[in-house]
TrEMBL record:
SUPFAM superfamilies: PhoU-like. Homodimer. Plays a role in the regulation of phosphate uptake. Residues 19-104, 121-206 form the PhoU domain. Keywords: Cytoplasm, Phosphate transport, Transport. Its main location: cytoplasm. GO terms for cellular component: cytoplasm. It is found in: Cytoplasm. Belongs to the PhoU family. This is Phosphate-specific transport system accessory protein PhoU. It comes from the Bacteria. InterPro entries: PhoU, PhoU-like_sf, PhoU_dom. GO terms for biological process: intracellular phosphate ion homeostasis; negative regulation of phosphate metabolic process; phosphate ion transport. The lineage of its organism: Bacteria, Bacillati, Bacillota, Bacilli, Lactobacillales. It comes from Streptococcus urinalis 2285-97.
């Protein structure tokens, strides 16, 4: 394969990854919106669409491994392929967690809810969406300094996680009938927190792409 053709293949690979990431970003947004608005139809849409994400990840993995096997790239080119291979796995897991939030929406039908907790979950969901969007953008720009900055913002997500857990416990004490909802809230909080962790992973892969170093941000 000529060098120009090879570079085109790499660019196509990265564009496919970004497209997959954008789709997952939409899944995260829809899943949180479905949960806090009790929209079971929207939740079902998220669950059904998860298969599309899985298919995209499989295609990216297949193409990445094909490039490694047939072209045997070295140095920065190899890092580009490995970055897509690893980052696409992280994005696919984000999609899994978005689907899990949607499934929680289905399970919550008819249960006693706690509006003040759901309002805070909505806030956390928006913060997670911003972090994922920023991580995808820094993947495109490959700005290492920005990658560090975005990874540090995961602390905001962690703070939401702890604060909303504490709030949920307090509110369940006041409303014992919402105990089932409380269990689902804790699950959704965990899913959102993990999505933030995977966004941080993407930032780590950006650092690897530019420096060749695998570090924990």
């Amino acid at each position: 394969m000529l060098r120009t053709k090879f570079e085109e293949e790499l660019d196509k690979l990265h564009n496919q990854f970004y497209s997959m990431g954008t789709e997952v970003l939409g899944q995260i947004n829809r899943s949180v919106r479905a949960f806090v608005s009790h929209d079971r139809d929207l939740a079902k849409n998220v669950i059904e669409n998860d298969e599309v994400i899985n298919t995209d990840e499989t295609k990216l993995e297949k193409k990445s491994l094909e490039i490694i096997a047939l072209q045997q790239p070295v140095s920065i080119d190899l890092r580009k392929v490995i970055t897509v291979l690893k980052a696409s796995s992280d994005v696919e897991r984000m999609g899994d967690h978005a689907a899990s939030i949607a499934k929680a929406t289905i399970r919550m039908k008819g249960e006693e809810r706690i509006p003040v907790v759901e309002e805070k979950i909505n806030e956390m969901g928006k913060a997670v969406k911003v972090m994922v969007e920023d991580a995808l953008n820094v993947y495109i720009t490959a700005d290492v300094d920005k990658a560090y900055e975005i990874a540090a913002s995961d602390e905001i997500i962690d703070n939401y996680f702890r604060d909303i857990q504490n709030l949920a416990v307090e509110e369940i004490r006041k409303t014992p009938d919402a105990a089932f909802a409380g269990k689902e809230y804790f699950q959704v909080l965990m899913f959102l927190e993990r999505i933030g962790d995977y966004a941080k992973n993407i930032c780590e892969w950006v650092v690897y792409l530019k420096t060749g170093k695998i570090i924990e941000l």
